[in-house]
């Protein structure tokens, strides 16, 4: 057998094994590995420091878009994220939860800090200008819109959470209707199959 043929077979075998390994993962969430969106964000944290995805390299990052005056979806998402960290046990320290505001008009830095820390002190709230918010939401294919409610307004928005692996690669779009157990199961699978 020629050297070239042996190399071809070795590469084919390696690719086949990698594909088999990926097929062995059985996610509850939508596998969007390799998507050409959800590439990055550049927004300020509650201390005014600009943060981006590479700041969290080496950790699994769960991103959710919402607003602090949300009556049900956002508090449910963050309470679930806190429960997921607990369910992961000692591996929960590898999970960084990031809450991105879609309502920068009302979500001040202090309010974002108080809101996220109410669920878990390690959670980070990010915010930007209206233009920055739109740019990041578009990058993540997140829908949001201001809806008038009498003399004030609320926000309508999409409800997926996005999970990045420890290399900073987007992996999963996680459905809002799923439980903390389902989220934790998916994250644990990624942690166990980290390459």
Automatic annotation (TrEMBL):
InterPro entries hit by this protein: SCO1/SenC, Thioredoxin-like_sf, Thioredoxin_domain
Disulphide bonds in the chain: 70-74
Key words, A-Z: Copper, Disulfide bond, Metal-binding
Pfam families: SCO1-SenC
Keyword set includes Disulfide bond: yes
GO MF assignments: metal ion binding
Domain annotation Thioredoxin: ranges: 32-195
Keyword Disulfide bond: yes
Binding site for Cu cation: 70, 74, 157
PANTHER family: ELECTRON TRANSPORT PROTIN SCO1/SENC FAMILY MEMBER, LINALOOL DEHYDRATASE_ISOMERASE DOMAIN-CONTAINING PROTEIN
Stated family: Belongs to the SCO1/2 family.
Name the record gives this protein: SCO family protein
Originating species: Undibacterium fentianense
């Amino acid at each position: 057998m020629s050297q070239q043929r042996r190399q071809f077979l070795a590469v084919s075998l390696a690719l086949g094994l990698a594909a088999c390994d990926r097929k062995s993962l059985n996610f509850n969430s939508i596998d969007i590995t390799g998507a050409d969106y959800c590439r990055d964000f550049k927004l300020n944290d509650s201390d005014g420091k600009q943060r981006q995805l590479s700041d969290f390299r080496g950790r699994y990052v769960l991103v959710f878009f919402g607003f602090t005056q949300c009556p049900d979806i956002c508090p449910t998402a963050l309470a679930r994220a806190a429960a997921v960290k607990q369910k992961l046990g000692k591996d929960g320290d590898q999970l960084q939860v990031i809450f991105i505001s879609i309502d920068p008009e009302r979500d001040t830095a202090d309010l974002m800090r108080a809101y996220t820390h109410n669920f878990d002190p390690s959670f980070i709230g990010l915010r930007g200008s209206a233009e920055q918010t739109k740019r990041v939401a578009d990058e993540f294919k997140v829908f949001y819109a201001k809806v008038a409610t009498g003399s004030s307004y609320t926000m309508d928005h999409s409800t997926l959470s996005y999970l990045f692996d420890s290399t900073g690669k987007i992996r999963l779009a996680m459905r809002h209707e799923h439980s903390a157990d389902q989220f934790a199961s998916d994250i644990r699978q990624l942690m166990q199959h980290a390459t």
